[in-house]
Each structure stands twice: as structure tokens, then as C-alpha cells.
């Protein structure tokens, strides 16, 4: 009798344990970790999106079914555990939309380490809340789809100056493109005209962005042990404190100096139109100053990178240039430069811009979001504090969505088949409440750059910094949040003397 009773107790105990385990959902699948360090060695450090896509295919919840039905299709949700931190990697559109957009209220936090918090606030790291909403409202009013149209004259002028420079000097396009983007941003935001590459306000904006983005990088020991921030700076190994002090000043200068400059120009009646002049009496001055400063910080490297991919894509695809030039010539008759109003008549140019955003997405893993409350998804546990990474590259290179994804093929966006080639903009600018507020500004810049380059010039002879001829297959690019092509040079040649004249006479300097 006794053994039977013991067996019964044991069975009941095991059942209870099994039930309890069932009640506490598992984490999503992923590579099995090692003792103590978990998946530390599984976190990729180079071209991260490629490895994450591989994980999704290997461990994704539906990977087996998907592989059978759709070989090489994008995978599903994957989890890595690193030193107590959970990383959730999303690779499918449905998961991303459901979690980052539909459940955006709890999936839109940001990593806010002690280092970045000591340097100062920025839109990129603000938690959802009143200040965040105030800044996002300012962005919508300045950079919404309709408001953006009034920016196009300033942008067009900056594009033409950049093109002249590229034609004249045949230099590494980075310098001219930086001036184009920075010049337009400072003109729009503060009515400030940049006169040289080492302009004072450009330097302030660069330093401020550098301070903030450096403090945001992972790996600061104070982010793991925030109490270290209270140590006196004279102690050894507290170099981070001196950096904080310097960077805090740079970030603060970026907030105040251009704003105060506009204020004094308004007071003396000589201010030119600008976002700052419009916002000077805004009820939340802190929000207004931060929004304007962060246009440069968040918009410079991203737009620069997308512009570099655009120029490179054109240089490597002469057939695309010929088709685009025909389309533009039919609209402008070679007698004027294309404008924003022509966009509706230039679908192929529009398709080129979309394809640039798809072919080599500028921010291939978007910007990580943080889960602010524990959640369950498809029976899996998503712990509070998890870092959620959306593998945008994986979607934009899903062969089911974009056949032959590695090919630069703008015409795919002219197809009327709604099942394939969805608009890459849906993914390339992030998701939910944190979706990029500068997407219209970036889009107009890219459209104006593409249409003006193609209206007047032919881009050719792309070579690496070692003078090796580049081909679509030989391209190298950087890892990290923003993925830029490796340094290259190319030739920008006016298509005819008449078009050269148009480039030089169309706009005044
Ligand atoms: C091709 C150019 C650009 C790309 C590809 C891009 C992409 C992105 C992405 C992926 C995010 C993260 C969204 C998320 O967390 O889900 C983001 C955030 C942001 N972008 Fe852009 N962006 C570009 C240009 C710009 C420009 C011109 C501005 C100027 C206003 C800008 C301002 C911002 C800001 C302020 C954020 C932070 C938003 C937040 O955290 O709430 N971006 N961008």
C-alpha cells in the first residue's frame, strides 16, 4: 500500500511541477547558451543583420514549416540571453507590426544607460511620456507630409551646390553630401547659412551629435554599475567622468547656441524664416530646442548614408540611369531642373529612391526598442526590460516579398501586383510610436538628389579607396547601427554642355 501511495504522491508532484512550468511561458527559441555567459558569444559583431537572419531561419518558431513551404523565406522570433539581459530578434513583418506597432505602448522604451543620461536628454532616448509627445508633435508640425513641401526650395538649392562641387572637384562624395545635408538642416532649422565646411555652427552640431551618440554606445562600465558615477574624478579609471563633463557641455551648446542666435536676430529684426523663429514663443521651449538640435544629430549620418548608396547604385547601374534620364527629359525637355511638383510624373525616379532604401537599408536593424512591461506573445514570455531588435534587412531581402532581393531593380516598385514588392518605406524608418519623424525630410532630399543628378549628369567609374573597380558583387559596407558603403570615388559628368549650363545657371550661389 505504502509504495503505491508514494508513487501516487510522486506522480501528483510531477504533474504539479509540469503544470506550473506550463503556466510560466517559455522564452522564444534561440541558440543554446553557455554556463554563466549565456549567448554572449552568439551576439554578432559584424554585419549583425545577416547572422540574425540566419538565427531566424535556424531557430525561428515556424522555421521548419516555412523552410518547406518557402525555402529561404524570412524566419521568426528568436531569443538570446546575454549576462541577464534578454534580446528578442524579430524578423517577420507580422511579429514586428503586432509587437512594435499594435502593442507599441509597451514596446517603445529605449536603452537609457547612466552614461547617456548624464550627458543629457535627446529624442532618441526619451521614454514615452509628456516630453516625448511634445517633441513628436513639434516634429509632425514641421516635418509632416504637407509641411515638408515648404522645405524643398532650400533642399533643392543645397542639392545643386553639392552637384556643382561633385562635378568640379570629382572628390569623395562624403564631404559634398555632408555639406548639402548639414547646410539644408541649419538653414531650415535656424535660418543659418553655412559658408564653409568647418563652419562654427556645423562644428557645434557635429560635436553635440558626437557627444550624444558616443554616450549611447553600449559597453560603458557605468551603464552596468551606475554607482560608479558618484566616484570623485581624481580616482584612477574614472576617465568616463571627464568625458561626461565635456560631452554634457557639447550637448548643451548644441541646444542653446543656435537657438540663442535666432533669438538675438529676432530681437534686432534681422532674422530670416526658420523653424526656430516659428517656435520661439512655443509654450515648451525645452522641447522646441531639443527637436531642432536633434534634426541634425539624427538626420545627418542617416541621410548621408542613404545618399551615398544612391550615388553608388547609379554609378553601378548605367541601364538604370539611361531609363531615368529618358523619363526626366520627357518631363523637363532638358530645359529646366526637375522639382518636387514633378514627382508624380517621375515614377521611375520614385522607384529608384525606394529601391535604394531596400537594397542596402541604411539602418538595417532599426534602433532597438525596450519592453517596459512583461508580455506574452504566441505563448512565449517577453520579459520586462527585453531589448527588441527588428531585423529590417531580413524583411527587405525576403525573396517572397522581393524576388532576387540582392539585385538593384527599381522597376520592381512599378509593379501593380500588391502581393510582392511592398513599399520599403513601411520598414526602413522603424515602427510604432518611435517611427522616424524625419522620414519625409529624408525622402525629399533623396528624391531631389536623384532627380537633379540624373537630369544633368551621368555617374560612372566607381572605385574603392584602393582604386579597385567596384561592382555590385564586390561592395563592402560597415557594420553597426548605420551601414555605410566603404569609401569610394566616382565620376560625375554633365550629360551635355546645355545641361552643364543648366546646373550652373539654374540657381544662384
Ligand atoms: C534615410 C534617412 C533616415 C533613415 C533611414 C532613418 C531611420 C530611422 C530609424 C530606423 C529610426 C528608429 C525608429 C524606431 O525606433 O523604430 C529613426 C529614428 C529617428 N529619426 Fe530617422 N532616419 C532617417 C533620417 C532622419 C532625419 C532626416 C531626421 C530629422 C528629423 C531623423 C530623425 C529621427 C529621430 C529624431 C529619431 C528618434 C525617434 C524616436 O526615438 O522617437 N531621421 N530613424
TrEMBL record:
InterPro entries named among the record's database cross-references: Cyt_P450 (IPR001128), Cyt_P450_CS (IPR017972), Cyt_P450_E_grp-I (IPR002401), Cyt_P450_sf (IPR036396), Cytochrome_P450_fung (IPR050364)
Gene3D superfamilies: Cytochrome P450
Cofactor: heme
Binding site for heme: 436
Entry keyword Metal-binding: yes
Keywords: Heme, Iron, Metal-binding, Monooxygenase, Oxidoreductase, Signal
Molecular-function annotations in GO: heme binding; iron ion binding; monooxygenase activity; oxidoreductase activity, acting on paired donors, with incorporation or reduction of molecular oxygen
Protein name: Cytochrome P450
Organism: Auricularia subglabra (strain TFB-10046 / SS5)
Residues annotated as signal peptide: 1-20
Known pathway: Secondary metabolite biosynthesis
Domain of life: Eukaryota
Amino acid at each position: 500500500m505504502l509504495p503505491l501511495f508514494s508513487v501516487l504522491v510522486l506522480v501528483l508532484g510531477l504533474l504539479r511541477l509540469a503544470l506550473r512550468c506550463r503556466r510560466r511561458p517559455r522564452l522564444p527559441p534561440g541558440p543554446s547558451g553557455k554556463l554563466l555567459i549565456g549567448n554572449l558569444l552568439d551576439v554578432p559583431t559584424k554585419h549583425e543583420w545577416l547572422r540574425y537572419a540566419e538565427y531566424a531561419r535556424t531557430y525561428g518558431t515556424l522555421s521548419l514549416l516555412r523552410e518547406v513551404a518557402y525555402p529561404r523565406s524570412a524566419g521568426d522570433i528568436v531569443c538570446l540571453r546575454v549576462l541577464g539581459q534578454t534580446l528578442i530578434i524579430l524578423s517577420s513583418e507580422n511579429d514586428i507590426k503586432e509587437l512594435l506597432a499594435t502593442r507599441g505602448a509597451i514596446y517603445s522604451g529605449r536603452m537609457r544607460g547612466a552614461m547617456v543620461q548624464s550627458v543629457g536628454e535627446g529624442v532618441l532616448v526619451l521614454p514615452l511620456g509628456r516630453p516625448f509627445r511634445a517633441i513628436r508633435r513639434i516634429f509632425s508640425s514641421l516635418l509632416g507630409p504637407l509641411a515638408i513641401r515648404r522645405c524643398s526650395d532650400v533642399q533643392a538649392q543645397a542639392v545643386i551646390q553639392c552637384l556643382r562641387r561633385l562635378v568640379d572637384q570629382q572628390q569623395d562624395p562624403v564631404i559634398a553630401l555632408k555639406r548639402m545635408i548639414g547646410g539644408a538642416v541649419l538653414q531650415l532649422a535656424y535660418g543659418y547659412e553655412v559658408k564653409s565646411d568647418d563652419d562654427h555652427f556645423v562644428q557645434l552640431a557635429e560635436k553635440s551629435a558626437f557627444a550624444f551618440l558616443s554616450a549611447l554606445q553600449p559597453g560603458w562600465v557605468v551603464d552596468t554599475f551606475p554607482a560608479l558615477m558618484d566616484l570623485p574624478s581624481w580616482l584612477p579609471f574614472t576617465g568616463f567622468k571627464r568625458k561626461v563633463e565635456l560631452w554634457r557641455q557639447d550637448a548643451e551648446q548644441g541646444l542653446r547656441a543656435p537657438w540663442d542666435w535666432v533669438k538675438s536676430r529676432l530681437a534686432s529684426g534681422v532674422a530670416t524664416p526658420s523653424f526656430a523663429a516659428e517656435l520661439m514663443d512655443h509654450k515648451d521651449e525645452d522641447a522646441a530646442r531639443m527637436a531642432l538640435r536633434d534634426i541634425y544629430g539624427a538626420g545627418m549620418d542617416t541621410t548621408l548614408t542613404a545618399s551615398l548608396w544612391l550615388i553608388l547604385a547609379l554609378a553601378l547601374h548605367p541601364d538604370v540611369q539611361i531609363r531615368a534620364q529618358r523619363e526626366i527629359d520627357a518631363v523637363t525637355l532638358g530645359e529646366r531642373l526637375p522639382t518636387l511638383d514633378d514627382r508624380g510624373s517621375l515614377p521611375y525616379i520614385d522607384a529608384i529612391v525606394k529601391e535604394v532604401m531596400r537594397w542596402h537599408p541604411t539602418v538595417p536593424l532599426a534602433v532597438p526598442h525596450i519592453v517596459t512591461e512583461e508580455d506574452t506573445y504566441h505563448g512565449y514570455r517577453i520579459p520586462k526590460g527585453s531589448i527588441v531588435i527588428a531585423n529590417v534587412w531580413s524583411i527587405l531581402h525576403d525573396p517572397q516579398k522581393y524576388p532576387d532581393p540582392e539585385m538593384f531593380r527599381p522597376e520592381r516598385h512599378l509593379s501593380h501586383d500588391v502581393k510582392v514588392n511592398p513599399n520599403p518605406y513601411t520598414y526602413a524608418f522603424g515602427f510604432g510610436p518611435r517611427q522616424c519623424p524625419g522620414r519625409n525630410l529624408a525622402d525629399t532630399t533623396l528624391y531631389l538628389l536623384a532627380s537633379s543628378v540624373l537630369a544633368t549628369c551621368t555617374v560612372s567609374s566607381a572605385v574603392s579607396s584602393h582604386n579597385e573597380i567596384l561592382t555590385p558583387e564586390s561592395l563592402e559596407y560597415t557594420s553597426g547601427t548605420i551601414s555605410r558603403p566603404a569609401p569610394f570615388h566616382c565620376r560625375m559628368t554633365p550629360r551635355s554642355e546645355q545641361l552643364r549650363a543648366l546646373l550652373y545657371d539654374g540657381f544662384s550661389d
